[in-house]
């Protein structure tokens, strides 16, 4: 059963009527019913296109968090051949919030790092809703360093509300682990491409998203702190999250304009959750193009390109 967001009520109503008519299809004039179903479906499609053509930043936040949006495991399954997961940070423990591994991406050997939120109660608890602890970031560092040694391009798929803020995580050096992971991204002599596929929240996202090329899906968000956290900090009122989202410039379109990201990946009408395979294939094409653009650079050139990219953010000529 499809989950509709609050602002999709008009679409939900129309598609509900379509379902009612289909249920009654055998009880009357089938031709007339089919004609009416066709008209209602066309109206629903147009309403969906109109809504998604002018989403507000807060609405995009809701879309980025949609429970049916494809997650890391969906991208890995469709895009990475012979994916072999690698676990553990070799220091403390395994953290399932960050999934890592190696495989083949369209003829290239790659290492893959990404956050996984889970898609039901059991898997969400197992993956800690995609909020990594220090051992998750240390595992990411281990895999990135391994990729550098063996000449594997790195693909990072970002989807987290932020790093886990628990006491145990802080005691084990959460901030240091995030900083080391960000440093590892910058130090790579192989190309790395990151894609914000849903939420790119705070340092928890930056730790693996600091790449040669940073891509974002059309309705993803990338932010220094969640809108709720920012509203609590700025106005001491988390209910003003919508105001925070509007003012923080967290959408792919804003961040492309500011030079924080390099490209926006178009989503199917109605969001990636409505046509996940189409969205994943488009993401694969964008990753392939980004890797092609970086493919002939030497390790020193890769590092120089990445360094210049980040030093240029926020500077005006």
Task: Give the secondary structure arrangement, pairings included.
Blueprint: H1 9-23, H2 30-52, H3 57-64, H4 72-79, E1 81-86, E2 98-105, E3 108-115, H5 121-126, H6 134-150, E4 153-160, H7 167-171, H8 174-187, E5 192-201, H9 202-209, E6 213-217, E7 221-223, H10 227-235, H11 241-247, H12 252-258, E8 263-265, H13 276-294, H14 299-312
Parallel strand pairs: 3-4, 4-5, 5-6, 5-7, 6-8
Antiparallel strand pairs: 1-2, 2-3
Name the helicity range. Answer: 40-55%
Low-confidence stretches: none
Could you tell me the radius of gyration in angstroms? Answer: 21 Å
Largest sheet: 8 strands, mixed
Instruction: Quote the beta fraction.
Output: 15-25%
Order of SSEs, N→C?
HHHHEEEHHEHHEHEEHHHEHH
Distance between the termini: 52 Å
- Average of per-residue pLDDT values: 91
Q: How many structural domains?
A: 2
Which topology of the largest domain does CATH recognise?
Answer: 2-enoyl-CoA Hydratase, Chain A, domain 1
CATH class of the largest domain: Alpha Beta
* CATH homologous superfamily identity of the largest domain: 2-enoyl-CoA Hydratase, Chain A, domain 1
CATH architecture term of the largest domain: Alpha-Beta Complex
Count of discrete alpha- or pi-helical segments spanning 4 or more residues: 14
Strand segment count: 8
Question: What structural class do helix, strand and pairing data support?
Answer: alpha/beta
3D shape? globular
């Amino acid at each position: 059963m499809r989950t509709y967001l609050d602002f999709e009520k008009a679409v939900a109503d129309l598609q509900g009527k379509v379902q009612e008519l289909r249920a009654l299809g055998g009880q009357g004039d089938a031709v007339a019913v089919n004609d009416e179903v066709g008209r209602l479906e066309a109206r629903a499609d147009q309403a969906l296109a109109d809504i998604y053509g002018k989403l507000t930043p807060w609405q995009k936040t809701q879309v980025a968090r949609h429970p049916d949006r494809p997650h890391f495991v969906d991208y890995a399954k469709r895009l990475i051949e012979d994916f072999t997961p690698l676990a553990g940070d070799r220091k403390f423990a395994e953290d399932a919030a960050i999934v890592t591994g190696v495989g083949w991406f369209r003829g290239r050997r790659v290492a893959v790092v990404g956050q996984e939120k889970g898609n039901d109660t059991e898997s969400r608890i197992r993956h800690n809703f995609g909020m990594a602890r220090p051992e998750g970031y240390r595992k990411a560092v281990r895999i990135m360093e391994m990729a550098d040694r063996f000449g594997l391009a790195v693909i990072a798929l970002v989807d987290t509300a932020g790093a886990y803020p628990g006491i145990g995580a802080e005691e084990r050096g959460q901030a240091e682990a995030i900083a080391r992971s960000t440093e590892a991204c910058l130090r790579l002599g192989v190309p790395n491409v990151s894609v914000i596929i849903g939420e790119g929240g705070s340092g928890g996202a930056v730790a693996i998203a600091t790449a040669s090329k940073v891509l974002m899906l059309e309705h993803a968000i990338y932010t220094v702190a969640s809108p709720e956290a920012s509203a609590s900090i700025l106005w001491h009122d988390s209910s003003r999250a919508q105001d925070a989202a509007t003012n923080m410039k967290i959408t792919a379109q804003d961040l492309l304009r500011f030079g924080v990201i390099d490209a926006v990946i178009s989503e199917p009408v109605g969001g990636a959750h409505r046509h996940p395979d189409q969205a994943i294939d488009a993401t694969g094409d964008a990753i392939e193009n980004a890797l092609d653009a970086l493919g002939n650079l030497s390790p020193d050139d890769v590092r120089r390109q990445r360094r210049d990219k980040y030093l240029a953010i926020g500077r005006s000529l």
